[in-house]
Structure formats: structure tokens, C-alpha cells
Amino acid sequence: MYTQDQLKAMVAEAAKDEVLKNMAPGGILGVGTGSTANLFIDAIAPHQSHFAGVVSSSQASTDRLQKHGFKVLDSNSVQSLPMYVDGADEIDPQGHMLKGGGGALTREKIVAQLAQSFICICDGSKQVDVMGKFPLPVEIIPMAHAQVARELEKLGGVVTLRKVKGADSVYVTDNQGWILDVAGLSIKDPVDLESQINQIPGVVCNGLFARRKANVLLIGEAAGVRRQTY
Ligand code: 5RP
Which atom in ligand 1 lies closest to the alpha carbon of residue 104? Predict the structure, then answer.
């Protein structure tokens, strides 16, 4: 039986193989955020000459990539990326994802939107029939937090303003936004809910990646890494 950390390491390794096999040398790679993405960064580090550069989805990933010596490019300088590799907090049978547990949802969505192919890497615990057990992160403009929270409550969620782990201060994103975590949703139509939440004034982005879903899933299970396409 593998531990969750071992499963994450296995999918990170599989993603390295997937990228090196399918991406022509000299291309630019999109890189996600989180503990699984960190393992992926470490796995591709010895192969960085394969890439002209990378586009990163958070300051944390940028720091890690630069420590390894990667050339991190501004997303504005890139028109398209062949691949974007990132983790997820939940993924449903259609490849719709719920992301943002690490707070990087907005930049993740921006980089994912540039990519021709989204490679989702996660351990088996992230695969669900219906998303919503993991609280849905919504990045907001701070001055709107109370009114956005009221609107999200109307959708049936229990809303919490994210705080820094182990502290009482409000968690601030790389974009100087705040995050509302919405618990208790049963997300049967993620494409519709993603659009609906985006319509609330003060919302910057929400953690549903349904309109731009995964193209390839590499999932770590008891039998090893399983590859699925959507
Ligand atoms: C960060 C994310 C991550 O991809 C998601 O939280 C999964 O993280 P981990 O790989 O640590 O389980 O969306 O904003």
C-alpha cells in the first residue's frame, strides 16, 4: 500500500515522462502550484535544458523553479503553451476540477488558459463523483468580501474567510486578493456554477476548472499510475 506522498511522487515522475515524451525540445512549459506540483518541479529539474523556459502559476512555484535554475517567463510574453501540469483538490469523472486549496487559483487559471493541454496530477483520493466535499475557493477583492459571502451563501454554501494557517491574520493571495472557502456545495453542474460565481461583482476567480478542464489525468492508485484522457 502506498502512502499519499508516495502516490504524489509517482504521478510527478509519470508527468515528467509524459512531458518529455510529448513536448518537443525548446518549448515553454506551464507549471502549477502545490505539493504535487512541487514534486513535479523537482522531477523535471535535471531535464531543464529540454525547455526554453517555464511559466509559473504562483510566487511559491517561481521561487522553487528559480532555485533549480529554470528560466521563468512572464505569462504576458507567451501566446500559447503546449502543456500545463498541475494538481487538483478534486476531479470528477468528466475531468472537471476543483482547485485553489493552495490559494493560487487565479494564476493557475490564467496559465491553464494559455495551454493546449492540461495534465492533471493527483493521488486517488482526489477523484470524486460529485465535487464540493472540498470547500470551493473563491478569490475576491477585499472590499467586497461581505457582499460576496452573502451571495455565495444563497447558493447553499457555508462561507469562511481564509486565514493564514495557525494565525489569525487574513490569507492574502499573490494578487493581493482574499479567499472565501465555500463548504457544503454539491456541484452537479460545474460549468454553470463556475460562470454563475464569476458574475458576482467582487469575485476575481473561482476554483472550478470546468470550462477549461483537464485533458489528461495521471492518477496515483494502489495498482500504480493510471492515465486517462478526456
Ligand atoms: C493550489 C492548487 C493545488 O493544485 C491543489 O490544492 C492540490 O494541491 P496538492 O498537490 O498539494 O494536493 O490548486 O492552488
Answer: 14
**What H or E segment, with its residue span, contains residue 136?**
strand 136-140
Helix (H, G, I), strand (E, B) or coil at 123: strand
Q: What is the pLDDT of residues 38-56, one digit of tens each?
A: 999 999 999 999 999 999 9
Q: Which residues contact 115 (CB under 8 A, 6 or more apart)?
A: 30, 80, 81, 82, 83, 84
What tens digit of pLDDT does each residue of 26-37 get? 999 999 999 999
Phi/psi at 213 (5° precision): -90, -175
Q: Is 18 a catalytic residue?
A: no
Count of CB atoms within 10 A of residue 166's CB?
Answer: 5
Q: What angle do CA 128, 131, 132 make, to 5 degrees?
A: 130
**pTM recorded for the entire structure:** 0.96
In this structure, the residues whose C-beta lies within 6 A of any atom of ligand 1 are 32-36, 86-89, 99-105, 108
